[in-house]
Automatic annotation (TrEMBL):
Residues 105-277 form the D-isomer specific 2-hydroxyacid dehydrogenase NAD-binding domain. Belongs to the D-isomer specific 2-hydroxyacid dehydrogenase family. InterPro entries: D-isomer_2_OHA_DH_cat_dom, D-isomer_DH_CS, D-isomer_DH_NAD-bd, NAD(P)-bd_dom_sf. SUPFAM superfamilies: Formate/glycerate dehydrogenase catalytic domain-like, NAD(P)-binding Rossmann-fold domains. This is D-2-hydroxyacid dehydrogenase. It comes from the Bacteria. Keywords: NAD, Oxidoreductase. The keyword Metal-binding does not apply. The keyword Ribonucleoprotein does not apply. Residues 55-309 form the D-isomer specific 2-hydroxyacid dehydrogenase catalytic domain. Coiled coil: none annotated. One of its GO terms (molecular function) is oxidoreductase activity, acting on the CH-OH group of donors, NAD or NADP as acceptor.
């Protein structure tokens, strides 16, 4: 069996492959170090470009299974990809711990007014004030209760927060005080202090956080997006941040990435911008490799794979 491996993960994976497998490496531009034509399995790299994906599909027409290390697959489900009969699996579950920790970072950054404390330190000022907030007993709404949303809930409950969630089927989940359907989450906005966007980007969720949603939020509320930039109407969000509809935002993802240097998000005082890095820890790559190798064993033995993507639903 021949595999196509991304250059950024190949060194970790190759020593662990079964002896009867062969492999070809591919870089971020779709250049191979060998002949990929007989490959049956494709593990794509990080930040996969459409052009690279399409080069691989054209060069390796026998691919039957593709695994992506990302949880989101909106960048893979192109018309060209959908023309092929390829089983797609994703990295759902491997990002939950670091992203959940980062969400707590955003909330604490806001609650403890870290930027003001840093300004005081820079100016050598010893000033105490009592406006710092606690996360305890604050209301958190997590839009999307997949693996990332559930890890966020675990940590939020440890801080004593009231955790609400939104999902297609509003079945109860551990660490959530309330679960509502995907059509009901807006009714919770007037009572929550933090809103976390953790849902996949699909045609139904594009622009989900719009001006109407932002106007429903408290003026003291804080929006956090660790999912995909296009889920938020960024023009509406800029207006909300400038005019004080909400208190601020922690944004790890944007519609255009890298975020252009002239974007107003960089300089807004009530925005914490991070470069789509909330999942990036050394442990992440180990989890990616472990999941892929487990699925490879399943694939070779004809067993069901983990994290099969519903290509029609988009996740």
């Amino acid at each position: 069996m021949k595999l196509i491996l991304p250059v950024e993960l190949a060194a970790k994976i190759e020593p662990l492959l079964p002896r009867d497998t062969t492999f070809v490496r591919v870089d971020n531009e779709g250049n191979f170090d060998g002949d990929p034509s007989g490959a049956e399995v494709y593990l794509n790299g990080f930040k996969l470009k459409n052009t690279t994906l399409h080069k691989v599909l054209a060069a390796a027409p026998k691919i039957r299974w593709q695994h992506t290390p990302s949880a989101g697959v909106n960048h893979i489900l192109t018309p060209v990809f959908l023309e092929h009969d390829i089983l797609l699996t994703n990295g759902s579950g491997v990002h939950g711990i670091p992203i959940a920790e980062f969400v707590l970072t955003y909330m604490l950054y806001h609650a403890k007014d870290v930027s003001k404390l840093q300004d005081l330190q820079s100016n050598h000022q010893w000033i105490k004030w009592s406006e710092l907030q606690e996360l305890y007993n604050k209301n958190l709404l997590i839009i999307g209760t997949g693996s990332i949303g559930r890890e966020i809930a675990v940590r939020a409950k440890a801080f004593g927060m009231n955790v609400f969630g939104s999902r297609l089927r509003p079945d109860p989940l551990p660490n959530f005080d309330l679960i509502v359907s995907a059509d009901e989450w807006r009714s919770l906005l007037p009572q929550v202090d933090y809103v976390v966007v953790a849902t996949p980007l699909t045609p139904k969720t594009r622009g989900l956080i719009d001006a109407d949603a932002l106007r429903l939020m408290r003026k003291s509320a804080y929006l956090i997006n660790i999912a995909r930039g296009a889920i938020v109407d960024e023009d509406a969000l800029l207006t909300a941040l400038r005019e004080g509809w909400i208190a601020g935002a922690g944004l790890d993802t944007f519609s255009v990435e890298p975020l252009p240097s002239d974007s107003p998000f960089w300089s807004l005082p009530n925005v914490f911008v991070t470069p789509h890095s909330s999942a990036l820890t050394p442990q992440l790559r180990d989890r990616i490799v472990e999941l892929f190798l487990d699925n490879l064993t399943r694939y070779r033995n004809g067993k069901p794979l983990r994290n099969i993507v519903d290509k029609k639903a988009g996740y």
